[in-house]
Each structure stands twice: as C-alpha cells, then as structure tokens.
Model the fold of this input.
Amino acid sequence: MILIDTREKRIEHIERYFSQHGIEYRLQKLDTGDYMNTDNPDVIIDRKRNLDECAHNLNSADSSRFWRELRRAHDQQIKLIFLVEHGPQVKCFDDVSKWSSRYSIRITGRRVANEMFKTHVAYGVDWKFCRKQDTAKRILELLGYDSRGDKTESIDARSGEAIRSTD
Done:
C-alpha cells in the first residue's frame, strides 16, 4: 500500500492514476516526504511541483523546514528521493543548471543544480525529474511497482541495492 502525506496538495492526477491501476493508497500524515510504500518504509519520495519550488526550498530565508527534513531522513537512514515535475526539458542536473526562473532573477539554475548536488553528496538524496502526467507512474516505479501496479523491487535505503518483492 502507498501512503500519501495528508499535507500533499494538487494530487488529483496521482490519485486518478492509482485508482485506474488498482493501487491501494491511503492518506496519512508522514513525518518525512510525501509518498511511501508500506512494504519498504525506508524509501520515501518527496514530490516538487517544479524547479521554482526546489529553488525556494534550497535557497530561501525560510528553508529551515526543508533542511530539517533532509537531516531527519539521513539520521533515520531513509532513502529520500525528490521527484520534480518540471516537464520534458529537465532530466538531469545539467538541464537544471541551464534553467531560468520565471519568478526570480536572483536565483540561477546553476546555483539550484549546485545545491541539489550538495544535498545528494551530503545526505544521499536523489533527484529525479518527470513530466506531470508521468508523476504517478514514476512514484510507483521508484517505490518498487511495475507499470501494471504489481510489486517488483525497491531500493534498500542502507545499501542502495535493489530488493525483490516476495509477493
């Protein structure tokens, strides 16, 4: 079963996909991240709507909540994966470095990419990118489900190795 944090907003497209594919899910307050597979609670996904949200989380004056979440996941040996819905033009850090914010001229894509890379090195978080229409499918893949919604394998938070489901 997939748990979805109750504070997660604008998830109709994800709930619709889960329902259409017979994925069991429940809304529940999560201390870290937004999505968790109850069969492997050591891997958690935190969804970001776009790079502007990432830039705000990484660099704003009120980013302390974001950094506390990173430290908490790291201290609890949780593999935290940020899934950024930004569209087909952003697939990696290099693409992020070329990005320009529509809202802020003070933040550059290079700075955002550098901060993302720092979190990867310091806390072991991963950054994945997708189109909004692919978000639900990517969440399932990252949490150990195949395209039909069947369990396959997920990631062991401590070793980073794939774990096969016994179901």
